[in-house]
Description:
two-stranded antiparallel ribbon, Arc Repressor Mutant, subunit A, D-Maltodextrin-Binding Protein, domain 2, 41% helix
Amino acid sequence: MKLATLAALIAAVEEGSMRAAARRLACSQPALTRMIRELELELAAPLLVRSSRGVQPTAQGRVLYERAVRARHELDAAADEISQIGGHLVGKLHIGAVPLAVMLLIPEAMRTFVREFPQIQLRISEELYVAQLQKLRSGEVDITVGGIPDDLSAGEFYVEPLLATAMIPTARKGSRWLQAKSLQDLQQAPWVYTGTNSHSGYARALFERNGLEAPQQGALVNSTLALLSLVSTGDYVALLPQQIAHQPWLANYVAPIALAEAGLPLQVGAILRQELALAPVVRHLLTHLHRAAHHINRGDSLLS
C-alpha cells in the first residue's frame, strides 16, 4: 500500500468529489481514479461509491480512511519529533480545549509559547464536553485540555493536572432564576446542555451528584458563544466554570446563582496519548500551560 494512493483516498473522502480531490493533490482526475482503483484491487473491496452528487466512502472505505488519516498523522508527528530531537523545534500541534482553557489558559499559554517557539503551529479546537475523548483516541487532536474524566482508564493516556474549578449555575442578569436557593428550585428551569446529547454532561452530573433528577433540556449547544448568547439574552440556566462566571467582562450580562449546594468539582488537565508525552515540543507546551494555570490559581485576571 503506497502513501500516494492513501493520500488519494483521503482527499477523495474529505473533498467529496474526484475533481476537487485531484485539484487538491495537483494531479489529473484520471490519475486520481487510477490510484483509487489500485487500492480497491489491492484490498479486493470497493472503497468509494460514485454518484451525481460526488463520492462517498463505503464501509470498507471508511475503515481505511480513518486508519490512513491516523497513519498520516503519526508519520507527520514522527518527522516533527525527529527534527525536535535534533534541536530544531518545528511542527504542528492540534489542541482540543474546553471553554475554561480556551478563554483563560490557552491565550496566556500561547502568548508565551509562540514567543519562545515561533515555528510551532498551534491549532485550537473548542470542545465543550470531552469526557468521551473520541478525537484524542482517533488522533484528530494531539492534546485535550479539559475536565479529567473520573473513569479514565489507567495507562491509556498521559495526564497532567493543571487547574481545579467548579461548574456553577448561572443565569441572565435580572433573571427570575437568580432567586433560586437550591438545585431543586432550578429543576423546572430550561437548561442549556453541552455536548452531543442531554444524557451526559456536567449539568446532569451536578443534579445526580445531589440525588436529584436531571432538569429539562432547554437547548443543546456545542460552543461557548452559543451558550453565552442563550444565557445572556434568554430565560436559560447553564453551568460555567467559576473562574469564567466571575470574570468582570461577563458581570453585566450573566450572574452566578447562589445555591445551598456546591458546584460540580472539576479537575482540568492536559490529556494526551502516551507516545506524545516525551516529545520535546509537547513538554515545552505543558510547561507553558502550567505557567498559565499558576497565574489563574494565584487570582490573576488574564482577560480583564
